[in-house]
Every structure is written in C-alpha cells, then in structure tokens.
Amino acid sequence: MTTRQRRGGTSKTSISEKEPAESGGDIKAECPDTYRCPMFLALFLVRLLGACSQIINDCDEVYNYWEPLHLFLYEEGFQTWEYSPIYAIRSYFYIYLHYIPIVCLDHTRFSKATVFLLVRGFLAIFCCLGELYAYKAIAKNIRTGRVFFIFTMFSSGVFQASPAFLPSSFCMTLTYFTLGAFLNERWTLGIFCVAFSTLVGWPFVAVLGLPFVVLMLYVKDLKFEFIVTSLLLGSSTALVQFLTDSYYFGKPVVASLNIVLYNVLSGPGPSLYGEESIIFYIKNLILNWNVAIFAFFAGVPLSFIAIRKALKEGKLSTFLETNTSVILLAVSAALWMVIFGAQAHKEERFLFPIYPLIAFIAAIVYEHVYDQWLNRISFKNVLICFFFGSFVLLSASRSFSVYRNYSGHVNIYSSLNEELGNTEFSSDTVNRVCVGKEWHRFPSSFFIPKMDHSGRKVEFHFLQSEFRGLLPKPFKRGYSRIDSTRHEPTEMNNLNKEEVSRYVDLDSCNYVIDVDMSSTEFEPNFRNMSDKWMVLASHPFIDVSKSSGFAGLLRAFYIPYFSEKVNKMTTYTLYRRIIIEK
Question: Compositional bias of type Basic and acidic residues: which residue ranges (predicted)?
Fold first, then answer.
C-alpha cells in the first residue's frame, strides 16, 4: 500500500471510474508513442500556426510586456505608468522568464521580427505541452479525453490565447498543467503551478487552487503535505520574484501585492479603462467556444438532475464521492465567472485562465449526455458529427475572420521594414515613424528597425488624436538596463489622464501609419492630403463602423462570399512625407 493510499485512499472521479475497454480503449494502445502520435503533431502545428498568424489584439500586451522585453534585449522601449517605480504593479521577473531563452539563443543573430516570432513560438509550444499533460490525465476515460482534445485543439479562444505574451495566457497554460496534476493527484506539481501562476502570473488565479485546498485538507486528510508544500513552494517563488523586482525597481517591491491593491483599493482603478455588462463575457465565450460553451453551461442543470436522481435513490454520498474532483473544478470555474463578471471593467483576456476548465467541463457534460441519452438514439452518429463538425468549422471560421479582418495592422509594418531597408530619400538625421489614432494597434518596437538603409536612426512617435488618455513614453536611455528600470519617469499618472508631452508635430514625421477613415479635428484622412503625403503601401482592414448588425455576425465568423459581400473594408496605409525641393 502506498503512502497516498494510507493517508486517505484514492477517490474516484467521473473520468476514471470506467474500465478502458468500456470507455473506448487504452490511451497507450491508441497511441503508444505519445509525442509522435499524429493527433499531437497536429496540435503542435496548430499552435505554431497561431504563433505565426494571430494578431496582437490587446495594447496591454504590447506596452506592458513586449516593450519591456524589447528594453531587455535592445536597450530601448516604451514604458507605461505600471512600470514606474512609483507604482510598480508589473513584475520584471515575468519579463525575465521570457528573456532568458532568447538570450540563450543569441538574439543578435536574428532580426527583431524573427525574435518576436521565436518568443511567440516558445509560448505556443509551452501551451501545447500543458494541453498534452492535461489530456493524458483526462484520457483515463478515452472518450472524454478525445472530446477534451477536440475542444482545446480547435477552440478559437485557445488559438488566440496560446501565443499571447500576457500573464492571463501564461496562467491559462499553467491551468492545463494544474488540471492534469489535480486529476493525477500529483500534489507537489499542482501546488507549484498554482503558486507560480498566482505570484508570477496573476494574483487572482489563486481561486483556481480551490480544488487542491478542499481535496487535500478536507477529503484526503493531507493537511501536513499541503501546508508544508505550499509554504516551501510559495515562499521560494515569492522570494525569487521579490529579489528580481526589487533589483530592477531599485526598492523593495511585491508586484503581485501592488496589483491587488490597485484593483481592489484604489478607487476607480481599472474602471478608468472602460466598463462593460456581463453580456460582454457571454458574447466572447460564444465567439471563442461556440457550441462547446453551451455544453459547458449545460453542466449546471444536468448536475441538479443528477443530484436529484441520487437523492431519490439514496446514493447522494456515493455520487458526491465519485464526482468530487469534477465538482471542485466546476465550482472554481464558476467562482471565476462570478468574480470577474461582477467587476465593471471587463476584458476578453480575463477569461483565458479558465479556458482549460471550459474544455474539461464541456467534455464531461458530453460524456454524461452520451451515456444517458445520446447512446440510445439510432441516428446518434449523425448528431455527433453535426455537433463536432459545427464546433470545428465555427472555430476555424472565427480564427480566420480575425486574421482576415485585422491583420493589416501587422502587415503594414512589414511594408515599413521593406521601405526603410531599401530607400534613401531624406537628409534628416532621424527617420520618424508616427501614428495617431492607431497607437493601440502598434505591434511593438520589434517591428521598428533600429536603423534605415542609410544608417539613420528610426524612431517611433505618437501624434495627437481624439484619444484623451495616457500614452506610454520611452524608457530613459541609461548606461545599463537598471538605469532605465529604476528611473522615475516624469509626467506619469495612474488616473489615465492625458499628457500632451507624448505628442510630436506632424511636420516632424517622415512616415505615418494610419487606417483610412473619415476626418475629424485631430484625425485627418491622409489620403486627402496627397500634396503632402504619398501612399507607399496599403492592406485591407475591416471598417467596423460599417459592418454592424447582421454584417457584424459575418464579421465575427467568416463565411465565403457572404462575408466579402456584406462587410465593408477600408485600408491600413503607410504614408511617406513628400519633400518639396526649394
């Protein structure tokens, strides 16, 4: 008898109570060499495809993570107020984790755009490994494992989140490992993942550690193991992070504590950046999970039905014992939805950490429906094919639609690099690339070369637009990296108040990147200024203002012919200033 069995035994779960033959076979028999199995190679390729093709759709990802990483690698980048030592609510330790593998590869051998893709590739592979680990734990019931694999592999939400350089995406990947560790009863690994995800990634992920707390303290009677492991792993992680952040900020900093204080106790806090109703999350879940999200939410009424049946049969305690693990995971996902649904400020990335639980619970619900009802229907194969076919097609449609409609803002910077690499046109000592209203779609300084073809420095600047919030400013150039990170920048605030010092005059710009829309007082249409600005390159870009209503549905999901017919496209354009000879 093992120590684990002596201390409390191994409780059954709904994914492991069946024999392999009953649930579809043995995973080892199905795919003896896991890492060479076609299904896992397909997942690997899908994740790499996402890393290479998915746009950056969150300016926080650029300015709070890509820019500090660019500073670490190339000694310059944009700084947000969150990285000011005065506020210090972001962690340099998190940045450093992504810096290490790139430095080990000797990033100077690659172009900045290639380094950008390498980082995204590492993140995508990391997520792929997490999905694989969770699948192998769930696949004790092969059918449930297969359904989970389909959901996670083809979900457009995971496709977009897996290569994103965001703490919420980082936490999502660690949730895959946490899920697998919990189902395999690998307590040390699970506690480490929760602790690391909470301290280094996002403090609010602590709620997803609820299953370990309940199972180890109250079900398994593993209080000593839980307390000691949590203290050792949590304190060691916190210490390393504290030392790293304190070194870079130049003072004692607990970044995870600061971000909690800002979000909970700082008055308006995140609400300064917009508020949404709960409908915002419902729409995002439907867009990113389509039919699978309905299976996820169906778990609530199906649970009540199962509990009621167990009560009638006098088997409630047996039901709860058998399904303890699934119930705890479902409750933690529900708590996440309640907590973040109650917050006024909502963002799509706030849902990333529970994506693995959505795939898992939806797979469990499918298994229950199959056993209780679907298995008795003569045309069940037609229904199954329709369900999974719809999920895969809608997911692919959603992912391609995002790429088709919004990739122009990344492609235009490739055109900029080609232009700066081949053209000599001005006598200026500096080439200025400027953006106005499109500041929030800037894909990071990784897309701005240091020098042009003639050896002139290239700089990126902001033009004044209708936006009246706070824009980032360049990190101070210093003799070393810590000169930049420890410097307390002027004209910063945590109230999202505009600082006009961020802007440069349009006449000082050599290039302008803009999306062609109607003119306003501060946002001219540069196509109407052909005497001053020359079009160098244009890429199609969705005009959201003219693609609403039914067109909005065909904007969210790409349907050949109909989406082209209904949606209105504009252009994302690179302009060059026309030099008039005197």
Answer: 15-25
Q: How far apart are CA 223 and CA 418, in angstroms?
A: 61
Closest CA to 363 of 63, 54, 148: 148
CA distance 23 to 42: 23
3-state SS assignment for residue 444 = coil
User: Do 417 and 401 lie in a common domain?
Assistant: no
CA distance 384 to 154: 16
Spatial separation of the C-alpha atoms in residues 435 and 464, rounded to whole Å: 9
Same domain, 386 and 511: no
Per-residue model confidence (pLDDT) at position 33: 58
pLDDT in tens, 478-504: 888 999 999 999 999 999 999 999 999
In a domain, 161, yes or no: yes
Of 110-119, 448-457, 509-518, the poorest mean pLDDT is in 448-457
Are both 425 and 401 inside the same structural domain? no
582 in a structural domain: no
Q: Among 373, 405, 437, identify where a domain stops.
A: 405
Within 8 A by CB and 6+ apart from 437, the residues are 465, 466, 467, 514, 515, 517, 523
Bridge pairing between strands 430-435 and 457-462: parallel
Using an 8 Å Cβ cutoff, are 565 and 409 in contact? no
Q: Which of 405, 437, 467 is the last residue of a domain?
A: 405
Is the pLDDT reported for residue 580 higher than 50? Answer: yes
Same domain, 294 and 420: no
Mean pLDDT of 314-321: 86
Distance CA 235, CA 493 (A): 32
Does residue 490 sit within a domain? yes
What is the Cα–Cα distance from 430 to 509, expressed in whole angstroms?
Answer: 10
User: Contact 408/572 with Cβ under 8 angstroms?
Assistant: yes
334, 463: one domain: no
Looking at the structure, do residues 111 and 130 belong to the same domain, yes or no?
A: yes
Q: State mean pLDDT over 383-410.
A: 96
Dihedral angle computed from the Cα positions of residues 23, 29, 32 and 37, in that order, rounded to the nearest 10 degrees? -60
Nearest CA-CA partner of 517 in 414, 436, 434: 436
423 and 563 together in one domain: yes
Q: Tens digit of pLDDT for each residue in 129-140? A: 999 999 999 998
Alpha-carbon distance of 95 to 245, in angstroms, equals: 10
Domain membership of residue 427 (yes or no) is yes
Identify the CA nearest to 434 among candidates 335, 567, 575: 575
Question: What 3-state DSSP class applies to 491?
Answer: coil
The residue range of the domain holding 241 is 3-405
Rg (CA), the chain: 26
- CA atoms of 579 and 564, how far apart (whole Å): 38
- 173 and 212 share one domain: yes
Q: Are 433 and 511 in contact (CB under 8 A)?
A: yes
Do residues 139 and 27 make contact, with C-beta atoms less than 8 angstroms apart? yes
